[in-house]
Q: What sequence folds into this?
């Protein structure tokens, strides 16, 4: 991956942006797309909408969500320990002993998630899964008064934001879901910066997907796209204990995943496959018979309906601080979308027919 894009990716994934607190990541996105978009704006919801003007009238929306899972300060006890609640879907079993960062205004305070040691657990406690109320955050406060000088109820908490290359292609971060999609949306503008294309491309970094697909709903209503594609992550199944009979055979570094099913317009699906072949990139197919749980859910039903598609990046260990994706898959997702944008125009018929 070229230096500028790698820097963009690393800044995105390390920026703290739990649902409702996305602006640090959105600032990274604004800074990057300012050099490639014809215009951009941030709406009242916090979505960042960048536009590359086309030669035609077709409106093509591409969206990745900037929010990540996280925690929030709920209560500070008399001894200065923080009790917290979850932002988005958290696997409580992975939380004990994690390093976290508490965000109090512009200050970042390190802490650790504590739990009663195994030596002191009763037999029945050892057999039970941890609950949020069994855990706390220790950040070295002397007591409640000391703690309240440094943190407040409602402060956001994120996982330690390390970025590590596992090999020349695989990268692990705390928030690939779904900074990967935001990366692709921004990188697409760079890919097409010196080209004229027919569609007006709206590259959106949306907010609050993890708590109900909210930002894509408002931004899609404002854009009123003819066609919209959500870029998100999907479960890779190339590691132990994954049931391919249920989830399919999805591998890292084998190409972006094109979804097919009720949430996907049939013409968009076929055009995406054709675009992948023209771009000479590998791709994978995922069956999605119901709603996809992505921003495409709300885009599809915006106003009188939108032709939608979903491109997913294979992701290992979703919703943990050690998600893993492939740079090659990210780069090929950009190539796929660029080719799709070159193929569609004002005369493209997205009406499903036999």
A:
């Amino acid at each position: 991956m070229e230096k500028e894009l790698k820097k963009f990716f690393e800044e995105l994934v390390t920026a703290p942006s739990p649902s409702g607190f996305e602006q640090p990541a959105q600032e990274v996105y604004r800074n990057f797309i300012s050099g490639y978009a014809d215009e951009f704006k941030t709406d009242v919801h916090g979505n960042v909408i960048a536009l590359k003007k086309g030669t035609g009238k077709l409106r093509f929306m591409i969206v990745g969500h900037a929010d990540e899972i996280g925690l929030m300060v709920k209560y500070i006890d008399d001894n200065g320990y923080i009790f917290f609640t979850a932002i988005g879907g958290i696997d409580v079993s992975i939380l004990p002993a994690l390093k976290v960062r508490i965000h109090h205004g512009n200050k970042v305070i390190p802490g650790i998630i504590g739990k009663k040691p195994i030596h002191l657990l009763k037999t029945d406690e050892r057999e039970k899964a941890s609950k949020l109320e069994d855990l706390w955050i220790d950040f070295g406060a002397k007591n409640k008064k000391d703690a309240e000088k440094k943190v407040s109820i409602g402060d956001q908490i994120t996982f330690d934001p390390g970025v590590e290359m596992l090999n020349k292609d695989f990268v692990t971060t705390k928030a690939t879901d779904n900074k990967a999609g935001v990366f692709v949306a921004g990188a697409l503008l760079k890919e097409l910066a010196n080209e004229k294309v027919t569609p007006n491309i709206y590259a959106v970094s949306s907010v609050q997907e993890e708590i109900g697909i909210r930002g894509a709903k408002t931004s899609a209503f404002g854009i009123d796209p003819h066609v919209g594609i959500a870029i998100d992550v999907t479960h890779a199944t190339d590691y132990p204990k994954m049931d391919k009979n249920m989830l399919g055979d999805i591998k890292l570094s084998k190409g972006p995943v094109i979804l097919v099913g009720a949430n996907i317009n049939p013409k968009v699906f076929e055009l995406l496959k054709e675009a992948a072949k023209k771009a000479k990139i590998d791709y994978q197919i995922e069956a999605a018979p119901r709603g996809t749980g992505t921003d495409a859910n709300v885009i599809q039903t915006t106003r009188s309906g939108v032709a939608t598609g979903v491109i997913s990046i294979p992701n290992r260990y979703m919703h943990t601080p050690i998600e893993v994706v492939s740079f090659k898959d990210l780069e090929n997702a950009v190539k796929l979308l660029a080719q799709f944008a070159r193929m569609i125009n004002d005369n493209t018929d997205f009406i499903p027919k036999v």
